[in-house]
Every structure is written in C-alpha cells, then in structure tokens.
Specification:
Blueprint lengths: L5 H24 L6 E6 L5 E9 L5 E9 L4 E4 L8 E7 L4 E6 L7 E6 L4 E6 L3
Parallel strand pairs: 1-7
Antiparallel strand pairs: 1-4, 2-3, 2-5, 5-6, 7-8
Length: about 130
C-alpha cells in the first residue's frame, strides 16, 4: 500500500486551501445573475474616466461614476440590469468620448471597454 509523506500531505493541503481562497474570491466578485462591465486604461498614465450606464428603454441611470484608473489597470461595475439593452458612455479627462448600445446583456456576458490615447473600444465577452 503506498504511503503519503508528511511533506506531500502538507503540500496537498496548502494547494487545496489556496484553490478554495481563489475560487471564493472569483465567485464573490463575479455574480452569475448580472452582466459585468470592465473599463481598462491602456494608456501609459493615470486617467480620470467617467462611465455612464443607462437603460436603453427608459433612460434610467444605473451608473454615473468617475474613477481615476492607473495606467494599464482596470475598474469594473457589477449588478447591472440583465436581459435589457443598455447605453454605455465612456468619457476621459482628455476629451475622448464614445457610446455603445449593449444589446447582449445576458447575465453571463461581460462588456470590456478599452481606453487608449486615441480611441475607446467595446467588446462583448460571451462564454463558449
């Protein structure tokens, strides 16, 4: 019968604790009942980025927030209305602005917004 060494047992337990902690953090920050929006600052300096999210049907403001996002970092929004179109407007302190009609707001989808020095792009991420 194979035996398990003390070192191997401790290593396995440490791995299980680490996986549980990481899994819990991901489950906490990613809700399955609402779409998420992530705004990524792709520039080389910190930017003040304003995000305004409205329901497309009745123009209700869900988010109106300005965040200072460091270079090469992101900020996110959760608990958004699911299964209804939303208008997402992103504006930077440098005057860049773009609006996107987010039609595919299924709870498992996410909208990724990439802000560079000369443009703001939008990509809907869907599970495979």
């Amino acid at each position: 019968m194979p035996s398990i060494t003390r070192r191997r047992t401790i290593g396995l337990l440490t791995g299980c604790v680490t996986l549980t902690a990481i899994g819990g953090a991901v489950a906490y920050t990613t809700q399955k009942n609402a779409p998420n929006l992530i705004v990524k600052n792709q520039t080389k300096r910190e930017l003040d980025i304003t995000t305004v999210i409205r329901t497309a049907d009745d123009n209700e403001v869900l988010v109106d927030d300005t965040a200072s996002i460091p270079a090469k970092h992101d900020d996110g929004y959760t608990n958004l209305a699911s299964n209804e179109p939303m208008d997402v407007t992103i504006r930077t302190e440098t005057g860049l602005e773009n609006t996107y009609r987010w039609e595919e707001t299924d709870p498992e989808n996410a909208l990724s917004v990439s802000v560079s020095t000369d443009e703001i792009g939008f990509v809907v991420a869907k599970p495979p």
